[in-house]
Amino acid sequence: MRKESGIEICRTNCGSKCCRSTPPGLTSEDIKIIKEKTVGGDWILNIGTYKKPIFVVSKKGDTKDCYFLTEKGLCSIYNHRPLDCKFFPIFLKLKKKNENEYSVRWLTWYCPLTEQLGTEELRQQIKEIVVQMLKNSPQTIHEYQQVMYETGGYKRKHFLLEEDIIISKSDT
Ligand code: SF4
Ligand code: SF4
User: Domain span at residue 25?
Assistant: First the structure.
């Protein structure tokens, strides 16, 4: 789900489909931020094992709704939502080529936003975030990728394109 203060605006009134399906995976940074910004509750679920935990946001009761989805179909932690939600419906797989260069495979999933803005527009917006993260907190983006593998987040996604991203040392 995306709305006003995000990187772009989702005004498709699709019924918040992305918040009523596969639960978003959580990086350790996501967990830290959500813990700081919420007042407890049963929002976190380990779908892995005790030794190898895989954390996702839990469902609300017996519904398919994300724990943080409000009655009005809005995200109650919008400014602090997981990276998985910020990037949706765009996904990426990174491979480090050398110190300052990454090969990136871009994937997508259908949602009404892809029709409204187009996948290229969305991909460019996400890419800006990814480049900043690779400069400032590469660990978080690598962890996002790990979470996507572990939760099956990459399954049945459509390949968009592959490209190299070069991180300029002078910008870091
Ligand atoms: S249009 Fe896409 S991103 Fe927006 S709420 Fe619907 S499924 Fe989520
Ligand atoms: S955290 Fe927010 S944006 Fe992400 S699935 Fe839940 S309600 Fe939707």
Answer: 17-82
Rounded to the nearest angstrom, the distance between the alpha carbon of 3 and the centre of ligand 1 is: 10
| Ligand nearest, relative to CA of residue 33 | 2
Task: For 17-32, write each residue's pLDDT tens digit.
Answer: 889 988 999 999 999 9
Q: Which long-range contacts (CB under 8 A, 24 or more apart) does 5-9 make?
A: 5/78, 5/79, 6/78, 6/86, 7/86, 7/125, 7/126, 7/128, 7/129, 8/117, 8/121, 8/122, 8/125
Which atom of ligand 1 is nearest to 112's Cα? 1
Give pLDDT < 70 ranges for the chain.
1-13, 169-172
Q: State the distance from the centre of ligand 2 to the C-alpha of 171, rounded, in angstroms.
A: 32
67 & 89 share domain: no
If asked whether residues 132 and 167 sit together in one domain, one would say yes
Single out the residue of 135, 134, 160, 136 nearest to residue 145, CA to CA: 134
Ligand 1-lining residues (CB < 6 angstroms): 1-2, 10, 12, 14, 16-18, 88-89, 111-113
Taking the CA of 88 as reference, the closest ligand is 1
In percent, the amount of the chain with pLDDT more than 90 equals 61
Pair 149, 102 in one domain = yes
